[in-house]
Amino acid sequence: MDDLLERIDEFCDAVQRQWARAEEHGPLRLFVRHGEGWPFYARPVPGGAPITAADVEGVRARQRELRLAEAFEWVLAAAPSMADAARATGLRVQVCPLLVLDGEPAATPLPPGYSARLLGPADGDLQRAVHALDSVVAGAFGVPAPAPPTDRSLAGLRAELAAGAVARALVTGPDGPVAAGSAQRAGDVVELVGIGTSAAARSRGLGAAVTALLAVAARDAGAELVFLAAGDACATRVYERVGFRRVGECGIAEPS
């Protein structure tokens, strides 16, 4: 495994610790979120032993006990035994491209009538904007619409935005919010996540605009490495237009 993929693997093991506790299960590590928010997944321990189907089954049992999604994510080159072990337990394995930003992101203008913003900790409408952002992303990925953020979760987000641990981008069009995305940071590495566009507003360059906005913000904040995982070939082409290049693959394992 090359140094770049090793850095990404180490980031993926570190970033979740800001919001979750880590449970050790042999060569696998399960992250359990504190409080509200998207649930985390389990992943191989960096540099750990080969993974067996029994290891995966043990973690799945723990996820069921905690009423968590039976989900795993990993860098393929960092854990070559993980995919077969997951499949052996009946999980569906999806392989996604990993891409890193080369240099500065390409300018990606929005079409007329659309505007984009980075949410800030002092925004007076932050609760409404966060709910709109989460709703757009939920719709784009086909998951249930979320409830508005609570005062407690909003206070946590304000602190994270102020500290630069996260970033949130929202695009609004003539009919309201239509595209969104986020970024999360650990050290000098930033991952772009949850970039989505509502079905009615696709093919207008909005996903590329969100990606570029978050990438610029990451570079401006001093991030040395900016990366993301693409869900499919179409998304990969969007990210490549912004200035990302493919460097490897990640795996996602979930029940069929």
Structure description:
- This protein is an alpha+beta fold and 256 residues long.
- It has two domains: 3-90, no CATH class; 115-246, 3-Layer(aba) Sandwich (Aminopeptidase), CATH 3.40.630.
- The protein has seven helices and eleven strands.
- It has helices at 3-14, 53-65, 82-88, 126-141, 151-163, 206-220, 233-242, and strands spanning 20-25, 28-33, 42-44, 72-75, 92-101, 115-118, 166-173, 176-186, 189-197, 225-229, 244-254.
- The strands form two sheets. It has an eight-stranded mixed beta sheet with strand order 4-11-5-10-9-8-7-6, with helices on both faces.
- The chain is globular.
- The relative contact order is 0.19.
Q: What proportion of the residues is helical, as a percent range?
A: 25-40%
Q: How do the strands line up in the largest sheet? A: 4-11-5-10-9-8-7-6
Order of helices and strands: HEEEHEHEEHHEEEHEHE
Runs in which pLDDT lies below 50 for 5 or more consecutive residues are: none
What's the quaternary structure here? Answer: single chain
What share of residues are in beta strands?
25-35%
CATH superfamily label of the largest domain: Gcn5-related N-acetyltransferase (GNAT)
Principal-axes shape call: globular
Class of the largest domain, according to the CATH hierarchy? Alpha Beta
What is the CA-based Rg, rounded? 18 Å
Q: Per CATH, what is the topology of the largest domain?
A: Aminopeptidase
Number of strands: 11
What summary fits the major beta sheet? 8 strands, mixed
Distance between the termini: 29 Å
**Which structural class do you get from the secondary structure elements?**
alpha+beta
